[in-house]
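Progress note, sequence design subtask.
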């Protein structure tokens, strides 16, 4: 059964590293976007009731006012039915725009999981990133979520940041695991063209980030989290079901600017241009697409391999895939990057950080 992703293209200010389709917007622009979103959702009424997971991302979904959040959730429920009936429903939030009122509203609406942005526990690093929320803001928002009754919280961290040391990253993890979120995701900094960091000449630090990754994985395992994907760690039973569906090549529908979908074997993504998205939706026209493609044959098998190998448990390889990529797999086994375990092929755990070297074989 498919997942539903909804992209909220608004943020209060652009972080230095961000290359997502998001930008500040007025109340009127946000209201018009929600009208457009409702019209796009109406095009998929035939899928209503078939979704098992929901992920509301951005941008900064928590930037919406309480009234706008109610409107957003009512639109979503035209496709999902009552949110409490879903296997999982995740809502992304940033600490500076989440308060106790909004936390209570989301909980009452049936949202089951919150993904809260932290990135680092050191305020100096957060300022360098262009973040609006400091560590104290995260702590307040986290406590508000717990007070509202949320028992499933993810926190995001980053490594390889400008001026960040391995000790900084370990200290961030220690500070965070003391709070005890059910799920932790961490990612190495990537400097993308068009971002403030790229314009400022900020460089990636892959070797230092690799040291942080190794230290972070060990620290989280010691704190009771299990690594189940390259960048994701969870307490028992708290894995992100919506994201697991992606890695298992499952179907999903994306709504909003830049949102991607995978339905009936076709991949497509909406235009990232927010104004164009709103204009065409309100005019009753088809949402312009950034791309669409139907993967078949070797390309579809390669994608299945790359997605499946993101999971720490690995992937079971049918004979046709094994035969198709026999040479590539042979090289990866010989290089000590892959291993077999109980019928599954997986990236060796101590080689997960260099997973791109594996994926390049299948591109």
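Output:
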């Amino acid at each position: 059964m498919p997942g539903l992703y909804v992209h909220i293209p608004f943020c209060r200010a652009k972080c230095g590293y961000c290359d997502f389709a998001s930008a500040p917007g007025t109340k009127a622009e946000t209201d018009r976007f929600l009208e457009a979103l409702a019209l796009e959702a109406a095009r998929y009424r035939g899928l209503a009731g078939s979704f098992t997971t929901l992920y509301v991302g951005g941008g900064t979904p928590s930037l919406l006012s309480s009234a706008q959040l109610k409107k957003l959730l009512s639109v979503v429920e035209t496709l999902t039915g009552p949110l409490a009936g879903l296997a999982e429903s995740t809502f992304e939030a940033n600490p500076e725009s989440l308060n106790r009122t909004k936390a209570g509203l989301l909980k009452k609406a049936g949202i089951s999981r919150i993904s809260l942005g932290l990135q680092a526990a050191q305020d100096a690093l957060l300022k360098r990133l262009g973040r609006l929320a400091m560590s104290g803001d995260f702590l307040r928002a986290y406590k508000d979520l717990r007070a509202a009754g949320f028992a499933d919280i993810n926190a995001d961290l980053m490594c390889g940041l400008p001026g960040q040391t391995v000790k900084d990253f370990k200290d961030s993890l220690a500070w965070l695991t003391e709070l005890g979120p059910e799920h932790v995701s961490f990612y190495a900094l990537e400097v993308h063209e068009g971002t403030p960091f790229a314009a400022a000449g900020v460089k990636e630090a892959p070797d230092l980030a690799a040291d942080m990754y190794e230290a972070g994985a060990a620290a989280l395992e010691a704190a009771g989290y299990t690594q189940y994907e390259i960048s994701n760690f969870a307490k028992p039973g708290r894995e992100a079901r919506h994201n697991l569906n992606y890695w298992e090549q499952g179907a999903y529908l994306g709504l909003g600017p830049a949102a991607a979908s995978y339905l009936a074997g076709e991949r497509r993504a909406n235009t990232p241009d927010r104004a164009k998205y709103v204009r065409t939706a309100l005019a009753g026209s088809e949402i312009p697409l950034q791309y669409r493609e139907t993967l078949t044959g070797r390309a579809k098998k390669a994608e299945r391999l790359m997605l499946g190998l993101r999971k720490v448990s690995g992937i079971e390889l049918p004979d046709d895939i094994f035969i198709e990529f026999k040479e590539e797999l042979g090289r990866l086994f010989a290089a000590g990057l892959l291993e077999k375990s109980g019928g599954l092929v997986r990236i060796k755990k101590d080689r997960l950080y260099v997973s791109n070297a594996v994926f390049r074989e299948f591109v």
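The two ends are 28 Å apart (CA to CA). Work on this subtask will continue into the next period as scheduled.
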